[in-house]
């Protein structure tokens, strides 16, 4: 039987003498509605919420529980999902930006070569007379242009496999540059300069418009196909009529319509390149992206050249 001296103190003794040697029980703290928290031991809140140092427990203080942040309130599995989502978003954005830079770098090389050929065919008289005297080379370049264009557009494997894609793109650029230079040799230098200037303004305006606007032209691909078919029909009719008798206003009308339609094509292909619309080009299709923009810009130049050439005559 345990003696009374070794028995634990009663509840009243522990309540009135908290520092009793054999005190093994502390009453539960009461909740304070005014402060919204449990009161700490004596001196706890007067010391800023930190237990005071005492001689009986030197250097010891209880662990302060910090309030969890908002991100810590998210379960670990959900946090990993969010991190993966933002990481994928950043990676896709960086890939798209690298793709856009690659396409515009290739496009800049193509346009620099094409307009150099146009300048040579326009300013160097022996070259200009040569291409006018031998139109068969023009028709041969047209055939090469058509065949290579069909290969790059219809076949995915050649336009994605390096270095065949760049080789085919180079042949295509050479053929279209010769065609553009041959057509430019029939016009005055002033008309060529005017067409180049207007083309540059149109291309810059279209690029800024596509990067700023919320209008999605990729959702109107059906209307653009109809516009392309109508342009082809008008071109055939114009070619037939002009082969019998030259009609100035008909030629001007066809050239103006062609410039407008290819400007819309340029907007459409630029938005495909950006990739934040309903339709987008895969980052692997950098040759297709450069090819589309290049064809649009050169055709805009040729149609504007016909308008400016007719206006300066």
From TrEMBL:
UniProt keyword Translocase present: no
Subcellular location: Membrane
Single GO cellular component term: Golgi apparatus
Signal peptide segment: none
Transmembrane segments: 103-124, 136-155, 167-187, 193-211, 223-247, 253-274, 286-307
Molecular function (Gene Ontology), one example: calcium channel activity
Biased composition (Basic and acidic residues): 13-22
Membrane topology: Multi-pass membrane protein
Principal cellular location given in the protein's record: membrane
CDD domains named in the record: LFG_like (cd10428)
One biological process term in Gene Ontology: negative regulation of extrinsic apoptotic signaling pathway via death domain receptors
Protein name: Transmembrane BAX inhibitor motif containing 1
UniProt entry tagged with the keyword Hydrolase: no
Keywords on record: Membrane, Transmembrane, Transmembrane helix
Pfam family, one: Bax1-I
Family named by the database record: Belongs to the BI1 family.
Region named Disordered: 1-37
